[in-house]
Inverse folding.
């Protein structure tokens, strides 16, 4: 199998499954959401066709069963219930398992029969009475049609070598381009179905010359077999069949004969239908391909993606936005894409066709390995640029002009590469609605899950790493935070709790927040756990503020849950959150109000590879402080004494002073002067004292590894122009003096000195 096609199949299947899960959640919360049900069928149809085309019939069979159950719901024959949705989600989970099996082993041996039987049983047991009623109501509008007379005038009976003739009235769920959908439907009719005639004629059907439906006459197959063969074809919404064998001068088959015919024909029905769906794109002419319909009509439909967000676009997403047809078959023939992108209207002028072709290639797939290689080259280019500037700094000459040009080129290249690596948080966020729903169902809780800021972008490396930490935080919000409905009602709250996942951009960082309106965190309970586990003494924890105590939630092995469950209680999870976030040069904090809820705030850099740093000196040694953390630089005379601690006062807030000489254990005399770097309070409420500051520069940061990983106060190293290795400071783990911590606990803005002289006294 072609590796590129194989990887495209895996990626697009994952995207379709994620989108399908979220649409199912929308349907569960609002059964009247027609947009959700339409999207569900597009995605389910695409999955079924893609799996069938790739030869993975077990997944195609599951998708087919799920589609049948949802079809009963769409036509009102079954209601949306939590139990039926559980069955649908079980089917989706099985498809995910099959996909993972395929990804790991190249094939799948998962047996889907048990799950498929359960889904089929739900369809048969719940939909029988409704089926007949629906069929009756839908058939009434055709009761006044004399199908026997229509057959006699439409079918050349003398040319038919069969004793069975069946009339089928077919209704398509056709879009704005009926001719395209009808053409694909006709091209997908299996060879076993012999078309004896139609009304309107076949050419008329292909040109869209019909209203709600059209009539077909099939020879050699009974009514049940015809309905089965046609029911799963492209865009078919309803098939109504009638036996009209009398016009042939014969008699209809007996029950036993029709059953035998049906059994023989249905042996290959599922596979044939699925293969036909998947092959429809290639079988259709360039004028009729469904992907091209969307290229023409995208401007008329605001819901169709434009390809400007992340790496998802109409040409690369898992399914076509309107038709649900996967475009991968055409991806393999990229040389032909320009021609097919011209659309279905051959009469359009050349300028329109050219504009459409240009628009179609604005978004392309980029191989991850190539992207990483390009990124490494940019890192080397940045380092070379720094070396070159340092080498000619002392001799001003015409080389500076060349250097300025290199600066411009490398900066543009750097920005382009960084933008290429940025991916919307939607890629991760879309997985979580299903997670929250399932956890809430398991614990008999009601949860409304809201998502904001999913369009905010992060570097791909960070996005890959942040998924698990966010999952742990959300699981804790459901398990620890949201109370049971009766408890919430007794406390005067709505029975349904709310969990909100949001993201926002702030300078060069992204802040991801998970907040709930649950029970909150009992600070005294955490204190008791900390003491019981021997982490701190009772005397020490009693001195700590609640915000300081909440940080112990991230301590390894410490859990505030007394009962161990499948979700939490073993003290693992939140420590992983802190470790992972800090390894990405980020930070995490917790805020909580008992009875009101909790908020976990994760601050992440947009990118971790190339950053701008401020070089500071301590005893003739240079260190780098990331610019994104710095709020202000001032002289040493700004330092005041409050509650016995050295601090910087800014807007009635104190920032305890961390002397880098002491924090980094540099053994040399402390100078009387120096500079102070105040950190943004959102990152950490401290100020750093150093001997001096020198320059700002972009550097390539290499994280500490091996025995050096986890060293407090340091996040990595950077090689600068002269070849020296400069340590990069981690402002979140630099040790704060004890008197500074105490000053923050006891701080009262009313006690601030009014003048610097009073502070010095």
């Amino acid at each position: 199998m072609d590796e590129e096609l194989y990887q495209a199949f895996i990626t697009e299947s994952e995207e379709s499954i994620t989108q399908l899960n979220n649409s199912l959640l929308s349907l569960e919360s609002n059964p009247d959401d027609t947009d959700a049900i339409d999207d569900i069928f597009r995605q389910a149809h695409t999955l079924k066709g893609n799996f069938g085309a790739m030869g993975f019939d077990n997944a195609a069979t599951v998708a087919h069963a799920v589609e049948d159950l949802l079809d009963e719901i769409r036509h009102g024959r079954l209601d949306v219930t939590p139990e039926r949705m559980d069955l649908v989600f079980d089917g989706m989970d099985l498809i995910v398992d099959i996909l993972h099996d395929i990804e790991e082993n190249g094939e799948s041996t998962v047996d889907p029969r048990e799950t498929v039987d359960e889904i089929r049983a739900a369809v048969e047991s719940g939909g029988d009475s409704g089926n007949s009623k629906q069929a009756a109501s839908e058939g009434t509008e055709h009761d006044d049609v004399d199908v026997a007379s229509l057959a006699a005038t439409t079918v050349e009976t003398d040319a038919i070598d069969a004793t069975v003739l069946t009339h089928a009235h077919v209704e398509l769920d056709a879009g704005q381009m009926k001719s395209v959908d009808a053409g694909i439907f006709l091209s997908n009719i299996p060879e076993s179905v012999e078309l004896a005639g139609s009304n309107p004629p076949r050419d008329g059907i292909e040109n869209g010359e019909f209203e709600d439906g059209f009539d077909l006459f099939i020879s050699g197959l009974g009514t049940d077999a015809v309905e089965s063969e046609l029911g799963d074809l492209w865009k078919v919404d309803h098939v109504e069949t009638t036996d009209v064998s009398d016009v042939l001068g014969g008699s209809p088959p007996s029950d036993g004969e029709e059953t035998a015919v049906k059994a023989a024909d249905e042996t290959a029905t599922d596979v044939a239908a699925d293969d036909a769906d998947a092959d429809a794109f290639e079988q259709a002419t360039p004028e009729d391909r469904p992907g091209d319909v969307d290229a023409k009509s995208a401007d008329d439909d605001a819901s169709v993606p434009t390809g400007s967000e992340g790496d998802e676009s109409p040409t690369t997403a898992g399914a076509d936005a309107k038709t649900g047809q996967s475009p991968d078959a055409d991806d393999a023939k990229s040389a032909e894409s320009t021609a097919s992108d011209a659309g279905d209207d051959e009469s359009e002028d050349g300028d329109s066709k050219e504009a459409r072709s240009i628009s179609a290639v604005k978004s392309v797939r980029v191989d991850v390995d190539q992207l990483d290689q390009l990124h490494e080259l940019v890192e080397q280019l940045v380092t070379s640029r720094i070396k070159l500037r340092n080498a000619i700094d002392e001799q001003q000459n015409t080389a500076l002009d060349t250097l300025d040009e290199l600066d411009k080129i490398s900066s543009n290249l750097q920005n382009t590469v960084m933008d290429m690596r940025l991916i919307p948080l939607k890629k991760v966020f879309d997985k979580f609605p299903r997670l929250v729903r399932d956890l809430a169902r398991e614990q008999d809780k009601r949860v409304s899950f809201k998502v904001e800021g999913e369009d905010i972008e992060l570097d791909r490396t960070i996005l890959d790493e942040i998924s698990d930490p966010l999952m742990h935080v959300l699981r804790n919000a459901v398990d620890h935070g949201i109370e049971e409905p009766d408890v919430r009602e007794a406390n005067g709250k709505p029975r349904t709790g709310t969990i909100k996942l949001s993201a926002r951009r702030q300078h060069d960082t992204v802040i991801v927040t998970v907040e709930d309106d649950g029970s909150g965190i009992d600070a005294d309970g955490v204190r008791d756990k900390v003491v019981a586990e021997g982490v701190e003494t009772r005397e020490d924890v009693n001195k700590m503020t609640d915000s300081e105590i909440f940080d112990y939630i991230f301590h390894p092995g410490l859990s505030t849950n007394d009962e161990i469950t499948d979700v939490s209680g073993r003290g693992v999870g939140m420590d992983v959150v802190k470790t992972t976030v800090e390894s990405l040069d980020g930070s995490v904090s917790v805020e909580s109000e008992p009875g009101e809820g909790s908020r976990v705030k994760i601050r992440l850099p947009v990118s971790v590879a190339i950053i701008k740093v401020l070089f500071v000196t301590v005893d003739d040694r240079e260190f780098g402080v990331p610019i994104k953390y710095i709020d202000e630089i001032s002289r040493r005379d700004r330092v005041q004494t409050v509650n016995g601690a050295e601090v910087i006062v800014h807007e009635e807030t104190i920032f305890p002073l961390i002397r880098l000489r002491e924090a980094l254990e540099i053994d040399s005399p402390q100078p009387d002067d120096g500079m102070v770097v105040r950190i943004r309070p959102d990152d950490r409420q401290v100020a750093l004292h150093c001997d001096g500051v020198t320059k700002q520069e972009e550097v390539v940061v290499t994280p500490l590894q091996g025995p050096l990983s986890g060293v407090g106060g340091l996040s990595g190293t950077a090689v600068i122009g002269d070849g020296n290795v400069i340590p990069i400071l981690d402002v979140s783990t630099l040790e704060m003096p004890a008197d500074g911590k105490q000053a923050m606990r006891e701080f009262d803005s009313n006690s601030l000195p009014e003048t610097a002289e009073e502070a010095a006294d």
